[in-house]
Design brief:
The protein is mainly α. Helices cover 81% and strands 3% of the residues. It has one domain: Up-down Bundle (A middle domain of Talin 1), CATH 1.20.1420.30. α2 packs parallel to α7 and α3 packs antiparallel against α9.
Length: 311
């Protein structure tokens, strides 16, 4: 589900638009947690596997910290991008090997093997066709986003954080919401966490690697957007631990913060007079209220016996 982000960020980086490439990754990670998990939890409370809390969520936080550390000098260079890419590939390899170790064996018989081979060939053909369409579509999306940024007079970063991130995150949205509706409530959470890790390591690494000078990181991203992304990743840990589920109330809080974050970006780009009011409202009212609400939910859902979900 992260293929659109990969295509768009690398295409933007090749075109020399690092703000769009970076904004797409950061915006997608914020949107995945706040909007997609929030909306999915409102549809039906989500189940969190213990494995996600032990491994994937801490790794997502570490990946966010790593990206912030690499960007502290205002640029993610090609060598640093290669390091992110290698780390992401190693992480993906471990996941694949672990999945194969627990996968059920294929049914025996020559007929079953022949059917499986035909299915693999058909899937490979569809994958190649999909990749070709994705490359073409990513070029159109990047061109349209840059034209929109120019016509609105806003930085490429803001368009990447909002419009482009929303567009490229549609597969995650569809997958998570459909899984929630079907009762596969653990899939929604795993999909978002895995996508965020992939975005930070594989996509950002590839985008920095294909650029001749690496990815330039604007000061606004370094002082606001990247810290927001890290805060959202860190917030997942206490929310997920509270009863190993995400309730509707927590989903509504996530949605509210995404609306506030997007509103802040829009007002900041427009240099609107209401920006300080929104900022103070978030810092001194919404944030403390959300912390109290999450603490109350966590206390209510605290484990009292051996019924915690095993991953």
């Amino acid at each position: 589900t992260s293929a659109p982000e990969l295509a768009v960020s690398t295409a933007a980086s090749v075109r020399g638009d690092p703000g769009l490439a970076l904004g797409n990754v950061v915006g997608s990670n914020v949107l995945n947690v706040l909007l997609i998990l929030g909306l999915s939890a409102v549809v039906a409370p989500l189940v969190v596997e213990r494995r996600l809390v032990r491994l994937e969520v801490p790794f997502m936080i570490l990946a966010s910290l790593l990206v912030m550390a690499l960007a502290i000098d205002g640029r993610v260079g090609r060598v640093e991008g290669a390091g992110l890419l290698v780390t992401g590939l190693a992480y993906t390899t471990v996941l694949v090997l672990r999945a194969r170790a627990v996968a059920p064996p294929l049914p025996g018989g020559t007929g079953a093997i022949g059917t499986a081979r035909r299915a693999v060939a058909a899937n490979a053909a569809m994958t190649v066709l999909g990749l070709l369409l994705l490359v073409l579509g990513s070029r159109w999306l990047v061109q349209g986003a840059l034209a929109m940024a120019e016509s609105l007079g806003v930085p490429d970063l803001v368009v990447g954080l909002t419009i482009v991130a929303a567009g490229t995150s549609l597969p995650e949205l569809a997958t998570s919401v459909v899984a929630s509706v079907r009762g596969q409530r653990d899939i929604a959470v795993g999909n978002v966490v895995g996508s965020n890790i992939f975005n930070l390591l594989i996509i950002l690494g590839a985008a920095a690697g294909v650029s001749t000078e690496g990815l330039e990181v604007p000061l606004s991203a370094l002082t606001f957007d990247l810290p927001v992304m890290l805060a959202v990743a860190v917030a997942c840990l206490p929310v997920f631990v509270s009863g190993l589920r995400i309730d509707r109330a927590e989903g509504l809080i996530f949605l509210g913060f995404y609306v506030a974050y997007t509103g802040y970006l829009v007002l900041d780009a427009a240099d609107h007079y209401a920006l300080p009011i929104l900022r103070d409202g978030i810092l001194f009212f919404a944030l403390p209220l959300a912390v109290l609400a999450l603490a109350a939910t966590g206390y209510r859902d605290r484990p009292t016996g051996p019924d915690r979900r095993e991953g």
